[in-house]
Amino acid sequence: MHVEVLKGSHKPAMRALVEAIHQEQGLLPQFYWPNDLLGAELATAEALGVFEGETLTGFILYREVPDVWEISLVATHPQYRRRGYMEKLLEHMIAAKGQGRAIWLEVHEENVSAQKLYEKLGFKEVRRRPRYYKDGATAILYSVS
Question: What is the pLDDT of residue 34?
């Protein structure tokens, strides 16, 4: 298992990973990334990925804004869930963020397993956005400093 900064050459693998998630669960509000939205995000965000050998098992898209890295997408291939890949990737990101920088992200209120992982890694709930998702669910905003 290793972590890499992702480049343009990784975009097909990132798209394939998102497609695998959509094939498994559809376009649920908890992970709503149709091709047009995903394409725009891939074009403008920074990316960090975790690999098993040459296989991309998960990735994070984020933006660098003053004093903050804002995560927009967290994705793990369905075949590699619950094996520690995303934990390793987030730990790497937290260690690399630099002193004085925070990391922000949001999660669907029903994604309890992600919430538990974020809290295990030191993220704290800082706010809620009621009715944020298409299904009327609340987004929980987390931050780690």
Answer: 73
What CA–CA distance (Å, rounded) separates 10 from 7?
5
Residues 94, 101: Cα–Cα separation, whole Å: 9
pTM for the structure as a whole: 0.87
User: Cβ neighbours of residue 135 under 8 Å, at least 6 residues apart?
Assistant: 28, 29
Q: Give me the domain span that covers residue 69.
A: 2-144
Dihedral angle sign, alpha carbons of residues 133, 7, 43, 69 = positive
CA distances from 50 to 7, 18, 37, 69, 92 (A): 13, 14, 22, 18, 10
Query: What Rg value do the Cα atoms of the chain yield, rounded?
Result: 14
Place of tokens 């669910």: 137
Q: What is the CATH number of the domain that holds 17?
A: 3.40.630.30
Which pLDDT tens digit goes with each residue over 125-139? 999 999 988 888 899
Band of pLDDT at residue 30, cut at 50, 70 and 90: low
Strands (DSSP E) along the chain, which ranges? 2-5, 46-52, 55-65, 68-76, 102-108, 124-129, 139-144
Looking at the structure of the chain, the number of domains it has is: 1
